[in-house]
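Fill in residues.
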């Protein structure tokens, strides 16, 4: 528009100048050649007609030029510009590194560029006429695609990360922008998707993340990642009312190796230590290098002090073997500091700090050892660890003994059975009660061996009594809840019965209430299978668990043993009286025998007899003792 305006102005100026020049020249010429005024007036008129004619011609010409400028010129110029733009767009379309895909309003692909071919691996003819879902990777659910379509509907655009599949099958991330193209009637005619392959960026990102969170020498998590994991573990433990332990490990006298053998050997040793720790702890643990010669292990789901101490012991053990570094054979020990959540600390930072103080304690105590943050815990844990390893030896050296405690019929006072109770004849500590080692054996898994051994001994002994004509109706053997849920138990019992030849009806297995109730379906099946062998089952320490009466009714159990805790309060404590009476009534209503343990006084026996309890066991009748000491004839009278 500005061009035609300028032309019009130029034409007007030219026309003005020409007219002034024309009038000046013609007037001057006429004045100088003609003296006659009539002639002059005539020629001046002629001159004005000529001028009007010339002016009309000029105006016509100027108009014609102007119109051609305004119409043809602008159109041609626009066409030229459009062509230029199209040419540029085509170059961009072909040369861009981003893949471009154009689909019609039905989603049918109508156009793709060479970059798309390169990124996806598909030739244009394999893509054209298809739909974009041919690239789907299965990485996103239907709701993802729903959101894309909704955004296109509402805003006409979507952009974001999307995982697609190449022709080779490889899944890769794209950054994609999709735009809906609308016509003059606002109807969608096409969709244009432009995307770039961001797998390289992603790889770089993850590599950067790895570098930021890992120690480059050992490739173990560094302090940053370790603290983060510890925080997560604590949060999880808090939610699930569980615990976790942090073991901080420091190599003893590492500096000497580093200084004397060089940093290269030192580095290789650190790497080897990292590998050893990772091999020991494996999944479910986080092993990290916090810096220098300091490592750490995060133990999730660790609620027991002894368990954490056991892991520390494992660290010390694993360090004992020689490290072969280049041509050197190196030995190095470690010290371990342990801190526990929630006992010692409530957040990750505090847990690390406390483990560090515990480590300092371990170092001061002479290295190659471990220490817990709390001193009493250290002593306690050390004791438990010692007992566990001692117990292994005890089994090998046959230091365990089986004692038998008499069980009497309350009505007749006659001894009718015995309960087998294990003892440990310790070379230094003398006779150790099961309460001191059974829980440790349960945690270390040794309980299976102990129970198997006691069962075998008890069955042999019962066979011998039978052969000697001793009239006993049962020998009771305790089975740990750890063992009770395991399928090997059935095998064990049937083998022992077969080996000893004991009549199964003379064997009674005692299981605690919690063992039966915690995993009731498995326990129920186990009980039915054991019953098929012909033996009897009793629930020990009844009243201490939370038995559901409904479940109790389903159990193939012949006896309830009232826990000694309730018997202790008889006959004075009203609560104990009420509980004992209720248990007796319950057992009788279910057709079970009822057996009271822990009877220390005649009054207790009397009360139980008065309330129709069937059997009694306790110091008043007789303590647990070796088989040879049992007095079969003893029948203490309950009534004076
Ligand atoms: P339990 O099966 O309830 O055994 C009864 C416990 O009460 C025995 O303790 C016994 O000595 C004690 N006791 C008996 N009469 C009296 C009494 O009048 N007063 C008092 N205060 N105590 C009495 P013990 O032998 O120390 O055994 C403790 C627990 O250890 C047993 O409780 C049982 O749960 C477990 N246990 C013993 N031997 C074995 C075994 O071979 N295997 C397994 N898994 N556990 C065993
Ligand atoms: Mg028992
Ligand atoms: Mg008991």
């Amino acid at each position: 528009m500005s061009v035609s305006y300028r032309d019009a102005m130029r034409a007007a100026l030219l026309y003005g100048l020409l007219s002034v020049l024309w009038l000046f020249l013609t007037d001057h010429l006429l004045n100088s050649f003609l003296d006659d005024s009539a002639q002059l007036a005539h020629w001046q008129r002629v001159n004005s007609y000529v001028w009007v004619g010339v002016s009309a011609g000029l105006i016509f010409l100027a108009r014609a030029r102007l119109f051609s400028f305004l119409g043809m010129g602008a159109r041609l110029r626009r066409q030229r510009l459009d062509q230029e733009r199209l040419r540029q767009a085509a170059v961009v379309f072909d040369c861009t590194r981003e893949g471009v895909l154009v689909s019609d309003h039905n989603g049918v692909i109508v156009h793709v560029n060479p970059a798309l071919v390169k990124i996806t691996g598909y030739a244009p003819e394999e893509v054209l006429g298809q739909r974009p879902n041919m690239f789907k990777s299965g990485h996103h659910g239907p709701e993802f695609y729903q959101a894309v379509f909704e955004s296109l509907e509402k805003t006409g655009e979507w952009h974001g990360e999307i995982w697609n599949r190449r022709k080779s099958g490889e899944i890769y991330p794209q950054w994609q922008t999709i735009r809906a193209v609308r016509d003059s009637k606002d109807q969608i005619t096409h969709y244009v998707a432009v995307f770039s392959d961001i797998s390289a960026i992603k790889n770089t990102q993850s590599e950067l993340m790895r570098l930021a969170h890992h120690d480059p020498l050992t490739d173990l998590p560094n302090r940053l990642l370790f603290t983060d994991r510890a925080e997560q573990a604590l949060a999880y433990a808090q939610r699930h009312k569980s615990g976790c332990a942090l073991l901080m490990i420091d190599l003893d006298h590492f500096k000497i190796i580093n200084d004397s053998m060089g940093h290269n050997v030192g580095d290789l040793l650190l790497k080897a230590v990292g590998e050893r720790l990772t091999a020991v702890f494996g999944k479910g643990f986080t092993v990290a290098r916090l810096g220098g010669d300091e490592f750490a292990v995060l133990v999730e789901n660790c609620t027991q002090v002894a368990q954490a101490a056991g892991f520390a012991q494992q660290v010390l053990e694993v360090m004992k073997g020689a490290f072969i570094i280049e041509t050197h054979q190196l030995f190095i020990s470690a010290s371990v500091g342990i801190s526990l959540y929630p006992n010692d600390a409530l957040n990750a930072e505090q847990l690390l700090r406390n483990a560090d103080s515990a480590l300092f304690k371990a170092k001061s105590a002479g290295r190659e050892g471990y220490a817990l943050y709390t001193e009493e815990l250290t002593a306690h844990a050390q004791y438990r660890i010692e007992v566990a390893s001692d117990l292994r030896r005890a089994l090998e050296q046959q230091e365990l003994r089986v004692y038998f405690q008499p069980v009497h019929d309350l009505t007749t006072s006659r001894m009718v059975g015995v309960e087998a109770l294990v003892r440990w004849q310790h070379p230094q500590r003398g006779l150790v009660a099961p309460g001191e080692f059974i829980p440790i054996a349960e945690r270390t898994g040794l309980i299976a061996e102990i129970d198997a051994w006691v069962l075998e001994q008890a069955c042999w002994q019962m066979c011998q009594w039978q052969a000697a004509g001793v009239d006993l109706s049962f020998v009771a053997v305790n089975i740990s809840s750890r063992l009770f849920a395991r399928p090997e138990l059935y095998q064990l019992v049937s083998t022992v019965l077969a080996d000893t030849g004991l009549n199964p009806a003379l064997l009674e297995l005692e299981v605690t209430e919690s063992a039966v109730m915690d995993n009731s379906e498995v326990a129920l099946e186990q009980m039915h299978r054991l019953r098929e062998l012909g033996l009897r089952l009793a629930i020990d320490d009844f009243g201490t668990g939370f038995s559901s009466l409904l479940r109790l009714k389903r159990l193939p159990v012949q006896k309830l043993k009232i826990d000694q805790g309730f018997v202790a309060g008889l006959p004075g404590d009203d609560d104990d009286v009420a509980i004992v009476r209720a248990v007796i009534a319950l057992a009788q209503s279910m057709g079970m025998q009822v057996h009271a343990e822990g009877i220390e006084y005649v009054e207790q026996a009397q009360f139980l007899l008065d309330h129709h309890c069937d059997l009694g066991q306790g110091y008043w009748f007789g303590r647990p003792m070796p088989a040879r000491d049992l007095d079969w004839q003893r029948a203490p009278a309950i009534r004076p």
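The chain has four domains: 5-93, 96-203, 217-373, 406-420+451-629.
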